[in-house]
Here is the input.
Amino acid sequence: MTYKEALNYINGTLWLGSKPGLERIRELCSSLGDPQDSLKFVHIAGTNGKGSAAAMTASVLKAAGYRTGLFTSPYLYRFNERMQINGEQIPDEVLADIVARIKPAAEKMEDHPTEFEMMTAAAFLWFKQESCDIVVLEVGLGGRLDSTNIIAFPECAVIMNIGLDHTRILGDTVEAIAREKAGIIKPGCDVCLYEQKKSVEDVIASVCKENCAKLSVADFSAIKREFDSTEGQAFFYKGREYSLPLLGAHQLKNAAVVIETVKVLRKRGFDISDQALEHGLYSVSWPARFEIVSDDPYFVVDGGHNPQCAETVRENTLAYFPGMKHIFLAGVMADKDYPALFDILNEAADEFVCVTPSNPRALRAEELAAFLRKYQKPVSVCDTVQDGVEKAKELALESNGAVIATGSLYMSGDIRACFGLY
Here is the structure.
């Protein structure tokens, strides 16, 4: 099987989409020898911040000398980004070989596994094949019924910021969504939680009590920012100083959760020095999260796509680019709550440039523009993402402005590519 054939198979239209339940992934992994049972995991769920926390945790573990697997989704450019070991993506030929092993097992199943389930199984196989010491495993959707949740017992279950997203699947309140995400908590395991509203924390605490799981909650009052600029930030957490290249106060909160996770891992026997922790945070890379890709003009790429993300983008825009004109390069998925998204972003926006992300679920730029005109601000429509980038840059240069490209992670890769970033 070639790499192209492997991607064509795993992305096959007959099994695309989300089908909650663990029966298929259990059957598939069982036929492959249950590779997940040979691995250790940090399992991370949440609405926002789980990717950033996963990247930070993997960076710290790598700095500590561990052979560290990282499983995330979605990707910016290439499918291979979804599974990495010590920062290196799975090679094309290895992915092809692993999918060739998965295909016969999947074909024998009466209920064919989904794309994400096959991807999860492929990651487990590769991480076992490469003898990973530990795997940082990001939940795809929810938690309780996500295919990653077939793992037996995590070294630490981490639950990040919870908000309203995928409400048709997970529930229409943050408390209902919290219970779904708390499904990754296993009996007797350690749990680290992003500090949030009491009703959500109460749900997580209740599930921990039911499972005799020990809960640690990051203390955001112990964060003291020392330095902040478009180059990065430095902060103290519980009296110790750290540096982080990722921007925004929310990333300091994500880092605090990671620091608490490291404390749990140390208790579990992992040798992670203070220096490894500091170096791992300092050297982390996680693109398209309020990432400045140019300073002439300032051009930010952020994959935020829900109201919580929008609040962060709004706050960061006003904090990092005060007194400047803010041009928002916008593209969204039609099935997202984009009215709520832009009600928030509008508070920081002076002008909009609309594009259509390269995704079948994308809202057409013309439809987005028609909606945005209600804010009575200038709105432009561009035929392609690249045209949108050039238009937004032109507007920013004319007015001492900054461009903020946001609304969907699916267009972030195309935007970064316009700056030669892959």
